[in-house]
Design goal:
- Helices cover 76% and strands 0% of the residues.
- By secondary structure, the protein is mostly helical.
- α1 (2-25) crosses α2 and α6 crosses α7 (168-176).
- The chain is elongated, with a radius of gyration of 28 Å.
- It starts with a helix and ends with a helix.
């Protein structure tokens, strides 16, 4: 899983570099990212690669926590958890960011608009995660049952073998080996 994850991140990084270069070197791309202000037709409202000073801190936060931190945590989780579970919980990111946006808007500190009907998608994300958790519990129960059955068969066979030889402990050790 680590090799696949590593190659996925490398491929995504290369693709993002290509797209960034294409967008910022074509006038139509820059105008798409920075549309003209107030219906003026005098070109884009910002220049390519220009980052306003007011955006440096939020951009640093985004890069450090939402990119590097999130990908490191996902890589770590892929090592220790079922990959389908990790993938299922990545759907929480848009739901969490939308919920935090609502909280920030309600504080009134920033002039932001609340998310619209796209928050309804949060219900579908929650439903999907609920179904994933139920499926994981069911798979775990089946695994536990099959493990118990195999262990019971091993113990029964050992006891039978041990009773034939007069030593049940010896039978267990022989069957386990």
């Amino acid at each position: 899983p680590m090799t696949v994850t590593g190659w996925s991140y490398i491929t995504a990084s290369v693709q993002m570099c290509i797209v960034g270069m294409l967008i910022n070197t074509s006038p139509g791309g820059v105008e798409f990212v920075c549309p003209p202000e107030d219906d003026q037709d005098d070109g884009p409202s910002c220049s390519a690669w220009d980052v306003p000073m007011s955006a440096v801190l939020p951009l640093a936060y985004w890069v450090a926590f939402n990119s590097i931190g999130a990908y490191l945590l996902m890589t770590w989780a892929n090592c220790y958890a079922d990959p389908s579970s990790v993938l299922g919980y990545t759907a929480l990111q848009p739901l969490t960011s939308s919920t935090l946006t609502v909280v920030i808007v309600e504080t009134g500190l920033y002039d932001l608009d609340e998310p619209g009907y796209n928050m309804i998608g949060g219900l579908l994300i929650g439903l999907g995660l609920y179904m994933l958790v139920l499926d994981l519990k069911e798979a775990q129960a089946k695994k536990h049952t099959s493990t118990d059955g195999a262990l019971s068969a091993l113990v029964a066979g050992a006891l039978e073998h041990g009773s034939n030889n007069g030593n049940a402990r010896q039978g267990l050790l022989e069957d386990a080996a």
